[in-house]
Amino acid sequence: MRKLTYRLLTRLPTKYVTSGLILIVILFIYGILGSHYIMGLNFVDSVYYAVITMATVGYGDYTPTTGIQKIFATTLALAGVALLAYVFNIILTNFQERMSKYSKGARKMRAIENMDDYYILCGYGRVGKVVFEELTQRNQNIILFEKNEEIVENIEESSSVVIIPKDATEDNLIAKLAGDKCRSVIISTGDDVTNLFIVLTIRESNPDAWIVSRASKEENYSRLRKAGADKIVSPELIGGKDLYIQSTKPHILKITVRHTIDEIYDEFKVISKYGCNLENIQYHIPGIETPLTRKINTMDIKDGRDFTKYLEDNPDQKKAIENLYTLVNNCHSHIISGPDRATFEKLVEELEKNIEIVGINLSKNEIVKLTKKNIK
User: May I ask the CATH class of domain 2-111?
Assistant: First the structure.
């Protein structure tokens, strides 16, 4: 019932206001003609009598006496009241709706202005939902464009989540939002043409924006690339989670270190201190190109304390990890996501004071050469 009422309130004004005004004009003409031919008034007095009767003012200076005159005056008055009430109600409803939309829009824009930075996500379908969950798990600020309000009606807006219930291609709002505070624009609609148009809209005014677009068809990769997309992803191949990872590429750090198991917590404190997220750890076994990867996905210092306590309470598990560290000669890499490059520079600078950093963003070949030296 709530949805039905909302639809009626939003659609009636634009559809019926014009017809209501036309009916008033027709009734006014009926009133003038009736006043002239039935009441026997001249043209000016007919206009006057039609107006005061339709408005139910009735000064009493012209009084119907015959039966036909009384019927005419009654029908004119009743129809006038009904039509005027109808039109004014429609206009008022339209005004209230527009004011409500304006108020909601103003609140949303204030929330966006208060965000230090944010991700823009276009589309909340099967893929967009996965990306949205990945972003919320990492406590990221999100601006979600989704034209189908029913899809997002269960999403609770907050200081970190703002929903724009409109098509991102309708106007230049998305281009305005994809400025300096925008970390990345993730376009996940299922229509490649729509994705292409969004990319063009953003790139036209934001040459430095980082844009990741979904592509449903392989032949559209080149079109999206030419339009200005930095990354093109086919979720059918890699999934929504990798769409998020690709979007954060400018803010992903791979840091290769060498330290013992006793220094794990100290390292984690530094990572957590700068608001970064430890995505996973890669253990580089000497002579083997593909590392042993362990998913971590945490930025909570409590997880680090719990892990340290777990090792203290479980000596067998601690011994197993010590053996792993011995196998890789204490050399492993951390994949860290963070807010920006400046934060990474501070993080690396502080880590260097406590542990040995072997390299930053080393390639597979560089790490293989490094581990081969360790064998010797």
Answer: mainly alpha
